[in-house]
Design goal:
The structure holds 2 protein chains of 2 kinds. Chain A is an alpha/beta fold. Chain A has a single domain, classed as Peroxisomal Thiolase, Chain A, domain 1, CATH 3.40.47. Helices cover about 30% and strands about 15% of the residues of chain A. The relative contact order of chain A is 0.19. By secondary structure, chain B is mainly beta. In chain B, the strands form 2 sheets. A 5-stranded antiparallel sheet of chain B has the order 6-5-4-7-8. Chain B has a 3-stranded antiparallel sheet with strand order 2-1-3. In chain B, β7 and β8 form a beta hairpin. Chain B is globular, with a radius of gyration of 16 Å. The relative contact order of chain B is 0.21. Classes of the chains: A alpha/beta, B mainly beta. Chains A and B meet through α6 and β5 of A and β4, β5 and β6 of B.
């Protein structure tokens, strides 16, 4: 039943400085995170024999990738038995899932996983940039090609904000979900961010503030959209045997979700109220005896607020269509609630570290190092999930 | 007639030209399997249902309903017509046969899920963008 059967463990975490327009070399930020994770595990770089990242080096999308496998491999002069980097996988955490398989299959002992962004510096003084609109070099932008872009960008939908907004709108229509309910994801994130010294937005936010914000793409206002930052996050995935080398009590990767049964598309997915998350979430529970009620803390991707609600449903924390009532009033998802959600402030308030921030926080909480935002009662089981639209991957981790 | 907004043009290929240029004859053309009749979008070399390879473009009615939509307020590209409507419409020919598009010729606030719409074309350079307008006056 358990595909990984205790053969993959999380053993260290690290994060660089995180901020708006840091103007720092993105490779340097990446290496800061990597070295921090290696040190956190109590390892040395000589012991790292695997490397994994998402999305790999990309030159076409400024800020979307701070470093690829090659840059980190070379900068740290690693001697690798196994490495991978790429974008065609089940979301950002797909790279960590790959690392789990590498250690479970005996190809590596300690895999360094990282995700690095510098979208804030890349956007300069301008606003958030639409997909495909950069790099035109003046004059007409290049033509859209590839299934995902060719049939979306020509209709003036330049952002996942537009695409995810349409899923949210359909959810509103079918289930009566409201903006007041959506707002709880943003308000909860902000409340938790106030206890996270590294969070970007820490000023208190009220429901009135939320409704006063400008609209981006209905039903999303500014506060439903995450905040681009510069920063890098790294994690160490170790084999069962190698996990004995480390300083930390290793965290068992209990199960993962990587499924995508529906069409891999922003606009052609069969059910316009769910996304790939539906399949990844369902798969996760097929590989463990644990149940949603066993989860002590949930770190669910909130690149847009609605995605966190969709993950709540996909992972079975509430029934399909019921995420609105589930988050209503915010008590259930608060730090001291039944299911503490996005305890660091999520990407909405702590910054768009693009998926890895959620797994970093899940580990931190299970190690009891959440500081002011530590969930009470010594949490033992956490879920971390990342991605939206056709991208989705999730991990269930536990401290034995 | 208002000025046409900036649109990113698709790269035309032998596989997609029927879709992007059918509007020159005021026709919305989609790929259809000649073996089993399944409509296919976006274009593919294989019928996803029967794996047949005998595919060819055919004209659809252009009638559809709004499956979902959003009013885009964010000025990704400066333009005087914000908010404009981005939608996914479902064509009447087949359940799940959908296109992303824009809803035009009506106030943005009038658009709703389930709204009946019909295709209209907007020409820019060598591309005819299939957009949709309400069937009834709003």
């Amino acid at each position: 039943m358990d595909a990984l059967a205790g053969r993959a463990w999380l053993t260290g975490i690290g994060q660089s400085e995180v901020g708006r327009r840091l103007g720092r070399d993105p490779l340097e930020l990446t290496l800061d995170a990597c070295l921090a994770a290696i040190e956190d595990a109590g390892l040395t770089r000589e012991q790292i024999d695997g490397l994994a990242t998402y999305p790999g080096m990309m030159s076409g999308a400024p800020g979307f990738s701070g470093a690829g496998v090659t840059e980190v491999h070379d900068a740290l002069r690693l001697e690798l038995d196994w490495f991978t980097g790429g974008v065609e996988m089940p979301g950002q955490l797909g790279s960590v899932i790959n690392a789990c398989l590498a250690v479970a299959g005996g190809l590596a002992r300690h895999v360094l996983c990282f995700r690095s962004v510098w979208e804030s510096t890349a956007q300069g003084e301008g606003g958030r940039q639409g997909i495909g609109l950069g790099g035109g070099g003046g004059g007409r932008a290049p033509r859209a090609s590839g299934t995902m872009m060719e049939y979306t960008l020509p209709f003036r939908s330049y952002s996942a904000a537009n695409w995810i907004a349409m899923f949210a709108q359909r959810h509103f229509h079918e289930y009566g979900t409201t903006r007041e309910q959506l707002a709880q994801i943003a308000l909860n994130a902000r409340k938790n961010a106030q206890r996270n010294p590294k969070a970007i937005y820490r000023d208190p936010m009220t429901l009135d503030d939320y409704f006063a914000a400008r609209m981006i793409s209905t039903p999303f206002c500014l506060y439903d959209c995450d905040v681009p930052v510069d920063g890098a996050t790294a994690l160490i995935v170790s084999s069962a045997e190698a996990a004995r080398d480390v300083r930390r009590p290793p965290l068992r990767v209990e199960a993962v979700g990587s499924a995508l049964h529906g069409r891999p598309s922003w606009d052609q997915f069969d059910d316009l109220t769910t996304m790939a998350l539906r399949d990844a979430g369902a798969m996760l529970w097929r590989h463990t005896d644990l149940r949603p009620a066993d989860v002590d803390v949930a770190e669910l991707y909130d690149g847009f607020s609605f995605i966190a609600m969709a993950w709540l449903e996909a992972l079975g924390f509430c029934a399909k269509g019921e995420s609105g009532p589930f988050v209503e009033g915010g008590k259930r998802i608060a730090l001291d609630g039944q299911l503490p959600l996005n305890t660091h402030g999520g990407q909405l308030s702590a910054g768009r570290l693009h998926g890895y921030g959620f797994l970093h926080e899940a580990c931190l909480q299970l190690w009891g190092e959440g500081g002011e935002r530590q969930v009470g009662g010594e949490p033992r089981v956490a879920v971390a999930a990342a991605g939206g639209g056709p991208l989705a991957g999730c991990l269930l981790i536990r401290r034995d | 007639m208002a000025e046409k907004p900036f649109r990113m043009l698709p790269r035309l290929t032998d596989q997609n030209r029927h879709f992007w240029q059918g509007g020159a004859e005021d026709e919305l053309r989609l790929l259809r399997c000649r073996s089993c009749g399944t409509w296919i979008h976006p274009p593919s070399p294989l019928c996803p249902r029967c794996l047949g390879k005998q595919l060819g473009p055919e004209v659809v009615s252009g009638r559809a309903t709004v499956a979902t939509f959003t009013l885009n307020h964010q000025p990704w590209v400066p333009s005087p017509d914000h908010p404009y409507v981005i939608a996914i419409v479902e064509l009447e020919e087949q359940p799940g046969l959908r296109l992303m598009t824009n809803i035009v010729h009506c106030p943005a606030e009038a658009v709703h899920i389930g709204m009946p719409v019909r295709v209209v074309f907007e020409n820019q350079e060598d591309v005819w963008f299939p957009l949709f307008e309400p069937v009834e006056d709003v």
